[in-house]
Protein: LysR family transcriptional regulator
Organism: Nocardiopsis gilva YIM 90087
Amino acid sequence: MRTMDLVGACRAFVSVSESGSFTLGAAGQRIPQPVASRRIAALEKHLGGRLFDRSTRRATLTPFGRDMLPSAQRLVQLADAMEHDAERAKLTPLRIAVPDICSARDLAHLDAEARQLGVYLDFHPAPPGERAEFVRSRQARAAIANVPAGEGRWSVPLGLASAVDPGADAVFVETLRGSRADRTSRRRRIWIQPEDDVPHIRDRIVRIRDSVGLQPAQLMIASSLTRAVAEVLGSADFVLASSDQAEELDLHWRPIGEIRLTRSFDIVATDGETAESLRARLRSAVARCLGAVADSEAAA
């Protein structure tokens, strides 16, 4: 007899013994009376002895049945406890490290969509390096990681955002170089926010800076997005950002003329099963939270 069949048979056995009736015992288990009878008969065959005396109208336990009842009750109680623990485990939030650029509104929508799919999330906003470390140290079970372009499941195009309308369809980094004759005015800078302070984005923009002859100080790493935007609002500087961020911050956004930069995200987790489950079940919800498109959609 299989384990699941054994548990079901023991449930029927315990229910019939407690009610003293095959009909009432079956009703207590919400199964037809013939099904309860078959399960008990199968259990008797498996155990090698009669559990009930069928010569009377009541379901009366045999001596063998009385001896086996405590074990059957323990098995049923253990199965009930296991099912209860399983339900509780499914409701335990999965701690996931997320980009700290995600707004409370976007995370709330992600949470709501995940709940509809039976996934309960506990968000921990953090910059890229900390998100990866949280997973490695098992402080979080999963993270939305910033990965090199082409390696992720979601993509977010980047460009330059400014308080002043650039007046062109694209911003070329070389135009920030300025003239040699004008040495008095401060040259415009590009600010990199923490989410983009990763080698596969930072190093590429550094190479553009050097190739067009900008000064090193014209590319700055900001301690926060707030600091970067504050610098931009009070000057003609730019911040490297997504178009959604620029719109939210009321800035003018343009793509970069010399290079195409993209944030790329993927799910990393303490185990492969969790990562694949989140990718599959939350693909669209995560895309909306990040202001991204799934890579398959971008390629279409």
About this structure: Confidence is low (pLDDT under 50) at residues 296-300. The radius of gyration is 32 Å. Residues 3-90 form a domain with the Arc Repressor Mutant, subunit A fold (CATH 1.10.10.10). The longest strand covers residues 154-162.
